[in-house]
């Protein structure tokens, strides 16, 4: 019996992340059965959480050698420095992690305990290979890879998102480069920016890299759902406007809010049926409710926030097409062969449009007027994908999952 550790964001409210765990597990079971290899799984949360109620990264929960005054100063300095000196802010955050023995040791102990007696570590996917903005994935990932290396366990990054950009003057970028070049990293497949991935791993012949689809693109098969083509509703998946500011998209939160409202108004005037939805992230759902109230619509136009990924999959399958910013909303819709218009906020949605061969339907808000967006939506409503290309693209992720069996100890 072989044991595979599945590493992901198990407790995230953005349901695309835990969804990938289910999809990866489904295909490992399927491939293992075909190969006649008995397997079982361990489930490892990247932040070492044991429930949805735990904070994802409680730095300085027990300050230890740092007194409370120093803790306050470090936190305050980050807030003051971040807008003007982002690289320095990243350096401060990394120093926080390194000099906080409680948090680093907690993660190290958690990973070593969870990975013991494991034969392969699999990062299930998601936008985890990144060094800038919002969440610190690089330090926990470095600790994970280091722990696996200490235990002589190989690691496979499956269909991960690679942050667009490579800057070794960024201290966090150096951390990403370091952990991606550990000797136990055997294979990395990415759903988007393979050019940046190549910069991280260089010309190493010791690691296999490649481009693949996201595993969640098979959600129809994983959950046994048939595509529902009976609906005439357009699903509008909104995102918290702050994301456009955080990722320097050249617009304000107010611009995005007015832009979305104008698109909805035009669709409504032209008789299109529509509803607002979210991927489960609470600020996204709250923004959808705000839009409905601002425009004078009842809450009936907002689908209730999904609390598990099966609900999210069912919601997206209930639409004729979707207009969305969250990547996994787009991925799920493509899995059900639904038309998609993607609104990008950090380049990964644009990468997906390129992968599908329909880049003209994926854009940033600053690049299209509401009138142009509505034209794109209407021209896409009854569009069809090239089915041979679609199936070939979907199968790419299976190729790497099957290959990963070669690295089981």
Could you please describe the fold and organization of this structure?
The chain is α/β, with parallel strands linked by helices and 409 residues long. It has 2 domains: 2-211, Rossmann fold (3-Layer(aba) Sandwich); 221-385, Glycogen Phosphorylase B (Rossmann fold, 3-Layer(aba) Sandwich). It is built from 16 helices and 12 strands. It has helices spanning 16-35, 68-81, 86-99, 101-115, 138-150, 171-180, 194-201, 219-223, 242-246, 253-269, 282-294, 309-317, 327-335, 348-356, 370-380, 387-403, and strands spanning 2-8, 39-45, 120-123, 126-129, 155-162, 185-190, 208-211, 233-237, 273-277, 321-324, 340-343, 362-363. Strands 1, 2, 3, 4, 5, 6 and 7 form a 7-stranded parallel beta sheet that branches. It has a 5-stranded parallel beta sheet with strand order 9-8-10-11-12, with helices on both faces. Helix 4 (101-115) crosses helix 5 and helix 10 crosses helix 15. The longest helix is centred in the N-terminal third of the chain and has 20 residues, at 16-35. The termini are close together. The model is unreliable at 55-74 (pLDDT under 50).
Mean pLDDT: 90
Named CATH topology of the largest domain: Rossmann fold
pLDDT < 50 stretches: 55-74
Instruction: Name the beta content range.
Output: 5-15%
Count of the domains: 2
Radius of gyration: 22 Å
Helix-strand pattern: EHEHHHEEHEHEHEHEHHEHHEHEHEHH
Helix content: 40-55%
SS-based class = alpha/beta
Sheet of most strands: 7 strands, parallel
What spatial form do the alpha-carbon principal axes imply?
A: globular
Distance between the termini: 11 Å
């Amino acid at each position: 019996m072989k044991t595979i550790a599945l590493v992901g964001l198990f407790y995230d409210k953005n349901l695309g992340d835990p969804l990938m765990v289910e999809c990866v597990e489904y295909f490992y079971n399927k491939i293992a059965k075909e190969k006649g290899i008995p397997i079982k799984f361990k489930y490892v949360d990247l932040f070492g959480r044991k429930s949805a109620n735990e904070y994802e990264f409680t730095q300085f929960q027990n300050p230890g050698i740092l007194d409370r005054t120093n803790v306050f100063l470090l936190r305050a300095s980050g807030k003051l420095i971040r807008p003007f000196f982002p690289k320095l802010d990243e350096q401060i955050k990394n120093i926080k992690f390194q000099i906080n023995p409680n948090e680093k040791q907690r993660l190290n102990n958690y990973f070593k305990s969870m990975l013991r007696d494991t034969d392969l570590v699999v990062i299930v996917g998601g936008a985890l290979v990144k060094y800038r903005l919002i969440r610190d994935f690089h330090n926990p990932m470095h600790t994970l890879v280091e722990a696996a290396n200490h235990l002589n366990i190989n690691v496979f990054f499956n269909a991960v998102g690679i942050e667009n950009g490579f800057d070794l003057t960024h201290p966090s970028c150096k951390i990403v480069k370091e952990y991606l070049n550990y000797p136990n990293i055997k294979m990395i497949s990415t759903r988007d920016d393979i050019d940046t991935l190549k910069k991280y791993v260089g010309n190493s012949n010791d690691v296999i890299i490649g481009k693949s689809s996201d595993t969640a693109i098979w959600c129809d098969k994983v959950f046994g759902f048939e595509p529902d083509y009976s609906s005439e509703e357009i699903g509008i998946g909104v995102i918290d406007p702050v994301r456009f500011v955080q990722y320097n998209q050249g617009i304000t939160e107010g611009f995005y809010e007015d832009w979305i409202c104008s698109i909805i108004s035009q669709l409504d005037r032209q008789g299109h049926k529509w509803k607002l939805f979210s991927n489960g992230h609470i600020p996204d759902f709250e923004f959808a409710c705000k839009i409905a109230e601002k425009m004078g619509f009842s809450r009936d136009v907002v689908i209730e926030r999904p609390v598990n990924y099966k609900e999210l999959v069912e919601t997206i399958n209930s639409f004729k097409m979707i207009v969305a910013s969250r990547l996994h909303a787009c991925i799920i819709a493509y899995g059900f062969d639904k038309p998609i218009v993607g609104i990008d906020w950090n380049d990964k949605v644009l990468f997906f449009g390129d992968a599908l061969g329909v880049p003209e339907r994926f854009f940033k808000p600053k690049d299209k007027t509401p009138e142009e967006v509505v034209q794109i939506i209407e021209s896409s409503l009854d569009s069809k994908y090239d089915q041979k290309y679609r199936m070939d693209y979907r199968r790419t992720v299976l190729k790497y999952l099957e290959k990963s069996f070669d690295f089981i100890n």
